[in-house]
Predict the structure.
Amino acid sequence: MIPEHGGNVRSLAAELGCPTEDIIDMSSNLNPFGPAPGLLDHLQDRLRDIFALPEMNASGMVQDFADFYDLDPARIQAGNGTTQLIDAIPQALTARKALILAPSYSEYARACRMHNLKPGFFTASAQDSFQVDMELFARSVSGYDLVFCCNPNNPTGVLMPRSEILALADEHPRVRFVIDESYLPFVPGAEEETLIHADRPNLFVLNSMSKIFRIPGLRVGFLIGPAKSMPGFASFGQPWSVNALAQAAVRFLLGRQETTRTFLRQTRDLMIQEKERFLEAAAACDALRFFPSETYFVLASVQGTMGVPDICRGLSREKILIRDCGNFEGLPPGFLRISLKTRKQNQELLQKLFTLSKDATPVCSTGSRL
């Protein structure tokens, strides 16, 4: 059974008897400013593509991805979302012993167990704001042949510096490192932090278009690694695994390079502004402790008498979904994650949180309301 994730909008709408559009989904990490301009109109024009099989190996969108990021297409494998690629990794790399940097996305562990691997965990501590002790982590990877790291991490938002990951990979050449950069496009300076250009024989990078472009229903992901390893991944995939509309979306987005780069820059600028504004106002809520995050979602521990399920239920009655982090391996009970949205929606969430915790109305340190 696949573990519970965020984004259960349809279930909540059915429970409340309201349209799905009435639900504010702050449980799923998607760009509130997406999708990119023109994409929906383009897909409407391409609806007839579903009358024929899509390109079998998605080579057209792989080439567009390679052109956008200046990569060798031989280093790229496309997939039906990063989850499909994650599922293939333990088998394609014939892994015998896997380590996961925790707390983190549950699909890494599920993929290992699916291939009869019992993963180990290196767990960062809330006392250290989930920052990774790279020296201790480096010592821990010895004895493993596969390591999963989400960077920036989900659900903590912690970003490990590119230079430190490269040093780790160089120090342990027999260990294969899988770095999931699904949330990196939201981080300022992402172009300097990405590892997709670091062509190491033991380094594999996951890239998702679902989050930043707000197209999770299309299921689009890429794996970038050493060219000699990619045929092995292809053999564990399925033909026609990326559907026609997903391929059309990718080719539209990556084919309009300057427009798409502008969209990415604008998204980052807006998210920085709204995150700072939200966290400044949220600091007045004694019931929650928010942790530093390099991306657009924030992790919080519950400090008051209310538990996370109580808060989630209370907000769901107000048509707001947030993420109960109870199923993140390595994360103790009492944590929730909020994916920030527009200023109006962030303000509405804070007002409801303060009401639930019987706290004061959120006020910025300047004395102005959020």
The two ends are 41 Å apart (CA to CA). Residues 359-370 have pLDDT under 50 and may be disordered. The chain has two domains: 9-30+259-356, 39-255. Residues 296 and 340 are 6 Å apart (CA to CA).
